[in-house]
Amino acid sequence: MSNKSHFGLIGLGVMGENLVLNAERNGFSSVVYNRTYAKTEDFLSGRGQGKQIQGATDLQDFVGKLERPRRILMMVKAGPAVDAVVEQISPFLEEGDLLIDGGNSDYHDTERRVKQLESRSFGFIGMGVSGGAKGALEGPSMMPGGTKASYDAIESLVNKMAAQVDDGPCVTYIGPGGSGHLVKTVHNGIEYGIEQILAEGYDLMKRVKGMTGEQMADVFAHWNASEELSSYLVEITEVCLRTKDPLDGADLVEKIVDQAGQKGTGLWTVVTALKMGASVPTIYASLNGRVMSSLKPQRVKAESVFKPLPIKDFDLGSIDDGMAPLMDATVLSCIASYAQGMELLRIASQDLDYELHMPSIAQIWKGGCIIRAQLLQRIQDAYNRDPQLSNLMLDPWFVDQVNRRLPGLAQVVAGAAQSGIPVPCFSSTLDYINSYRTGRLPQNLVQAMRDCFGSHTYQRLDKEGAFHTEWLG
Ligand code: 6PG
């Protein structure tokens, strides 16, 4: 009997370890390689012990231990490390072998790598993997892109490894080139949005209502029981708010420095959107929220320079009604995050010829990933009804949500503004919805100015053609 393994994993970080344990549990004997062999030994004598997992001392040994065509998942840091591994392993690969990059790579890099590797008769899949360490072990959401033939070679593997929901595994063939990593990038942009939205709700409950951590956690629990907000991120927000500092039993969240970093995917989402002409203000506001948070020394200084606006006690609802207006603001802002992300994907799909299937993207986000939420069923239904839907908010179920919840969102944003409390995602969402539902915006005046100083011309409502006026006589 051959002792060749079905599956190979490079990079024994926590995600790599968990993914290989997941593959092995699902019947795929595995071989692992890590740059430092000591790490491989530790894994094999620890979590990997007694499993159908063997180690490799170098890449030649690793490749030699895999059955053909080889299926190799790389879980290394996005960027030059991926190119380095590709270069080091290429001399040992044979026609039809397949490399999968499971990191958060820039989709432009993946485009390039797919072309490079395919031209050498190897397959290359850029696969977004979401769900954190637990998801990697128990079943993540996976977003693989590359040639269809390459995907076919990994389909049985990823179908078993992925999270399972009622209508199937949380993985599908996304499309060609870098499409898998683009979809994962936009997933992360939506993730940034929802994280910031929930943080804004927490800030208002704390600063306007003086609520305790436990009270706020109760509100998040209430929200998590609703169709509109039931989600992984709301669930873990409740957990974060209930967690105590073991040192003194006080709320741990209040001990954490208010500066949020980022690894790049949120930024790439916004840059891609700006380049492609997609409107993503809620997602941008969350990114900028992190940038502002990092200016801590300046903010602390500015707090002592500028006169505070007294915090007004405005209506945020009561704990018993789940803070109704605040819930309105939260629901609409989450809807806006998804709508903006999906709209960006729709536009990117046209620009890049990815032929993304929107209902399937919603389907594979329903389980395993960080933005999994009950709302995704509604999103899937909306795109099933109309695969060319130009904006999610135009679907009848979402229209009703906007119509019912807009007054609550406006009330929350107005109250926060009068109290000097920043709510970037809530206020961006309000402007986004108000702009989107306004048939005539004031950009007619912008056009007049552009024509006035730069002869840029304008179009008229009542006549065809391009017009110019000598505005200054
Ligand atoms: C996921 C996450 C994950 C991501 C982190 C980091 O889907 O499992 O999106 O892939 O890397 O959340 O994101 P930031 O450090 O940029 O917040």
Written description of the protein model:
With 473 residues, the protein is of the alpha/beta class. It has three domains: 7-177, Rossmann fold (3-Layer(aba) Sandwich), CATH 3.40.50; 184-436, N-(1-d-carboxylethyl)-l-norvaline Dehydrogenase, domain 2 (Orthogonal Bundle), CATH 1.10.1040.10; 442-473, Up-down Bundle (Single alpha-helices involved in coiled-coils or other helix-helix interfaces). The protein contains 19 helices and nine strands. It has helices at 14-25, 37-45, 59-64, 80-89, 107-119, 132-138, 148-161, 179-209, 213-224, 232-242, 265-276, 281-293, 296-305, 324-352, 358-364, 375-385, 396-418, 424-436, 443-454; strands at 7-10, 30-33, 53-55, 71-74, 98-101, 123-130, 141-145, 164-165, 168-169. It has a seven-stranded mixed sheet, with helices on both faces. The chain has a two-stranded antiparallel sheet with strand order 8-9. Strand 2 (30-33), helix 2 (37-45) and strand 3 form a beta-alpha-beta unit. The longest helix is centred in the middle third of the chain and has 31 residues, at 179-209. The radius of gyration is 25 Å and the shape is globular. The N and C termini lie far apart (91 Å). 47% of the residues are buried. The mean pLDDT is 97. 6-phosphogluconic acid (6PG) binds next to helix 8 and helix 11.
